[in-house]
Amino acid sequence: MINHKLDMFGFSAVPFANRAENPFLDASRERLVKTIAHFINYRGFAVLTGAPGTGKTMFLNYISQQLQPNEHKIIYIPFAMLKPADMLKYICIKLNIEPVVSTTKMLGKIQDCIAEIQPTNPILILDEVQKISHQTLETIRLMTNFNFEDKNLFSVIMAGNDEFLQQLKLRINEPIRQRITIFSRLTALSRADTAKYIDHHLKTAGAHQQIIDSQATTLVYDFTSGIPRLINSLMFAALNIAAEANSPIIELEHLNHAGELTTIPQMEVFQ
After folding, report:
1. CATH number among 3.40.50.300, 3.30.870.10, 1.10.10.10, 1.10.8.60, domain 189-262
2. What is the pLDDT of residues 211-229, one digit of tens each?
3. Are 133 and 97 in contact (CB under 8 A)?
4. What CATH homologous superfamily does 27-186 map to?
5. If exposure means fewest CB atoms within 10 Å of the residue's CB, which of 4, 13, 130, 187 is most exposed?
6. What is the pLDDT of residue 166?
């Protein structure tokens, strides 16, 4: 539902909602879409990292929507901090398997199910993977360890903040690190792509006229450093401020005010 204050802009949808069906893809993200698509066909382990707010979850949702449901079985786990047994129970439920108490039996049931549904490709997506424990990570490795096969039967995409890379460097995680065939990273947008990102989202929301002054657009990058999540918050605040002022365009003063509202304030230093 669109805020009634934003009616003056002519939006037909909520702006800056980061809809997975129509995301903004800069050149690096377009390349990454192709890379992940190739990986999914090859199968194995892939890692997707990036700073908070760069759009990892949205990107994964977009990738998932591009896949044919009759060819792929997606198992998306939004919080990878689950204990090994809870992780296996969750996967069992997604595969329509009755969970049991024994971890070993659940591993066997999952492996049997994966073998039976071939050539359908099961894709396990672990989000917020920087919070995963070594025990759970090792359980995932064992679950995908089909020693009797000469090809991978599972695709595992592990997505999280950059700190996960430090975990993988630990000696204890060497077995799973060696299984990873692709390391990819989402980065912040450039100044030019930040402007394109804003234009894309405004048009996606239904705008047919200029909504933001060019100087204000330039200032968006200065406030956000090209982090999509921060751009969304800043622009939504700026739209509301412009609407309150009955202005059909976001001017520099509106953007500055929005920046004050969405940026951590500087603490006063008393002498």
Report:
1. 1.10.8.60
2. 999 999 999 999 999 999 9
3. no
4. P-loop containing nucleotide triphosphate hydrolases (3.40.50.300)
5. 4
6. 93
